[in-house]
Design a protein that fits this description.
single chain; alpha+beta; 5-stranded antiparallel sheet; 41% helix
């Protein structure tokens, strides 16, 4: 059991003693190992919740882990439920109901609205007059189609205000593709492309080691102002809009880092191996 799911159960009053043991066992599988963790993972039989919670507290201290926020845990829980619907499953309607109820319980109005239409269709099929003539098969198809569409459209809530309004001041192509800003930089170590509203203008595969190939890229980007940054969470895809030009950055490795954004002060964001954002 992941720590975020465990804490979701804690925050919602659903945690049970075996959950702590499952978390400890999962942590050991992830090669996190301390005597306190091994002790908790080895607990069996009838478990005393107060004793186990004390052991969990000691284990958390031993690995220097802090409790995640309730918001992080709710987001993780919803993401986990959502991911179950990317392929057809028998209990799809129950999962949608759990997602919908969770959004209501935690006042996530925007998320609730994303699932409103499909939730209404399920209610009509199960409890209403079913005027559209839904069947179990097409209800499940609607759920999967809806889940896939919103999964890929999920935009991160990271705030990029430190970069908005900054001008591109230079391009460094020695080694990595580095876009220098008035204050900070965009460092790209993965595939990318530059496009306008109509077509792709340049791509990473178009540019070779010859520095002359970078001249049109410099002419297109230098002097442009960043007016928007979007990060699609589950792709992962970063889109930086510089006036009328779009820079798309694709993390394409499970072993190597992809890109870095920084304002050289407090803002430092990078795409780690596997596409994890840190």
């Amino acid at each position: 059991m992941e720590l975020l799911e465990l804490y979701y159960k804690k925050y919602t009053g659903k945690v049970q003693a075996p959950d702590y043991v499952k978390w400890a066992i999962h942590s050991l599988y992830k090669e996190i190992d301390t005597p306190n963790l091994r002790k908790l993972a080895g607990m069996q039989g009838q478990l005393n919740i107060f004793e186990v919670e004390k052991m969990f507290h000691d284990a958390m201290n031993s690995i220097q882990k802090e409790a995640p926020s309730k918001e992080q845990c709710v987001d993780y829980h919803l993401k986990n439920l959502h991911s179950q619907l990317l392929m057809p499953v028998k209990n799809a309607m129950e999962v949608v109901k759990e997602i919908y109820d969770c959004t209501i319980e935690h006042d996530l109005f925007e998320e609730q609205m994303k699932w409103q239409e499909v939730s209404d269709a399920i209610d009509d099929f199960q409890h209403g007059d079913n005027f559209p003539g839904y069947t179990l098969e097409n209800i499940n198809k609607i759920i999967v189609s809806h889940a896939r569409r919103f999964w890929h459209m999920k935009i991160s809530d990271i705030n990029f205000e430190q970069l908005i309004g900054q001008k591109v001041t230079g391009i460094d192509s020695d080694g990595h593709f580095i876009i220098t800003l008035e204050k900070g930089a965009i460092i790209i170590e993965c595939p990318w492309r530059i496009r306008d509203a109509e077509a792709i203008m340049y791509g990473e595969t178009d540019i070779r080691s010859n520095q002359l190939d970078w001249k049109p890229i410099k002419e297109v980007l230098i002097g442009k102002t960043i007016i928007d940054v979007q990060l699609y969470e589950h792709c992962p895809l970063l889109i930086v809009q510089c006036d009328n030009i779009f820079l798309d950055v694709f993390h394409a490795s499970s072993y190597f880092d992809g890109w870095t954004l920084t304002d050289e002060e407090d803002f430092y964001l990078f795409s780690m191996h596997g596409g994890t954002i840190a």
